[in-house]
Write a structure and sequence with these properties.
With 274 residues, the chain is mainly β. The protein is built from no helices and 24 strands. β7 and β8 form a beta hairpin.
């Protein structure tokens, strides 16, 4: 598991931006441009009433609403998302997203289980089927995580986590991820992964510690943690901090290591480091 790449912290505005459709902009914060493997994440900004038409992809996609009101459709099934609601679409299913507001922009966090994203526009129409506000998707197809009612668990002291997607929740899915809330003093143990990880700070201020290197993060800044890097996050502020984390692996497995491994002195890779 010796890493061959360094961690990368990308503030919003420093990523790679493209226009997906009229009024729809995607800024990649983790992806091939910073040498991520098997994963692309970033922010999509939609102008009032703008949207992405129905399309398919050859990999899974996760969509989490950060600001505004949007309608998301999967092969005609339509879900209105509230703030921090999450939609996960397996590969091959046609889906679309549209900003419902005629005055305000919408912002979404997007994760793709690929470092070489593609999409194919679907021209054929789908029979529209508005889904109830409580709907959590369709077994064997899309999954909708309603933030208000999602199951929570503790991943470290003073933390509260939600699993949005993984191979247990959605068999065959290529990635895993979810939401984490850190109260003041909240933190995770020092750990590593056998795959790349993306962590976006969507609220408050975080400190990311990687083998003794400290990175302050806020306002959507996103960390790429390459496979094998020893790291953890901590909230050293006096207010809450929240993140969306995504693994380029189907199970949210972390390997907890001795705390000293996250220091410069105890860095297990210091000899011959990349």
């Amino acid at each position: 598991m010796r890493p061959d790449r360094m961690e990368v912290m990308t503030p919003v505005g420093s990523g790679v931006a493209i226009e997906l459709a009229t009024g729809v902009r995607f800024e990649s914060l983790v992806g091939s441009f910073n040498h991520a493997r098997g994963l692309t994440t970033g922010l999509v900004t939609m102008a009032p009433l703008a949207g992405l038409p129905y399309h398919t992809q050859t990999f899974a996609e996760s969509i989490t609403l950060l600001k505004g009101r949007v309608l998301a459709g999967v092969q005609g099934r339509e879900y209105e998302l509230e703030i921090l609601d999450n939609l996960v679409v397996p590969n091959g299913l046609a889906h679309m997203v549209r900003n419902l507001s005629d005055t305000e922009t919408a912002v979404l966090h997007v994760a793709l289980a690929s470092d070489a994203p593609n999409r194919t526009i679907v021209d054929r129409p789908f029979l529209r089927a508005p889904m109830p506000a409580s709907s959590i998707g369709v077994p064997g197809a899309e999954r909708v995580n309603r933030f208000r009612t999602a199951e929570r668990f503790e991943a470290g002291p003073n933390t509260e986590f939600i699993d949005f997607f993984n191979e247990t929740l959605m068999p065959g899915l290529e990635m895993s991820g979810g939401y984490g809330l850190f109260q003041p003093g909240g933190r995770l143990p020092a750990h590593v992964h056998d795959f790349d990880e993306s962590i976006s700070i969507i609220d408050g201020e975080a400190v990311c510690i990687v083998e003794g290197r400290r990175h302050a993060m806020r306002d959507g800044a996103t960390a790429l943690q390459p496979r094998g890097r020893v790291h953890y996050f901590i909230n050293e502020s006096d207010g809450p901090m929240a993140m969306i984390w995504v693994y380029a692996g189907p199970s949210p497995i972390r390997i907890v290591v001795d705390e000293r491994c996250a220091t410069a002195e105890g860095n297990p890779w210091r000899e011959g480091d990349a």
